[in-house]
Design goal:
Elements: E1 2-3, E2 6-12, E3 17-22, E4 28-35, E5 38-43, E6 49-54, H1 64-88, E7 95-98, E8 101-104
Antiparallel strand pairs: 1-2, 2-3, 3-4, 4-5, 5-6, 7-8
Length: 118
């Protein structure tokens, strides 16, 4: 299943219902899990930063009428996290969005937060 250029691969159909999320380059950018009525989205993988939590009506799997809502919300928060990370920690080759403009990172910038140990 693909939502807004994020591919969701279902890895368990129920108890828990879970998905792994991948960007257009095939890089994992999220882990989605609904168990015991608690839905969460981890970024970029299971057990890492929790970026969204909700309490849908479904227990070990979504009710069909709520699945699209929660999966679309999950993709939205994943994409926001990707943009936030790219803007604060851009790497060579990244495209970052600042305001209404997009910039292509062509060289690595020095880390201004690092202190010299000399």
């Amino acid at each position: 299943m693909k939502i807004d250029n994020i591919e969701l691969r279902m890895t368990s159909i129920a108890c828990p219902e879970q998905y792994e999320a991948f960007d257009i380059n095939g890089k994992q950018v999220g882990y989605l899990r609904l168990r015991h009525g608690h839905f969460r989205v981890d970024f970029p993988d299971c057990g890492e930063e929790i970026i969204y939590e909700a309490e849908p009506a479904g227990d070990g799997c979504f009710y069909s009428e709520e699945r699209d809502f929660y999966l679309q919300k999950a993709v939205k928060v994943i994409k926001n996290k990707i943009e936030e990370r790219n803007a604060t920690n851009p790497k060579v080759g990244d495209i970052i969005k600042l305001g209404n403009k997009r910039w292509h990172v062509k060289r690595e910038l020095p880390d201004v937060d690092k202190k010299d140990n000399d």
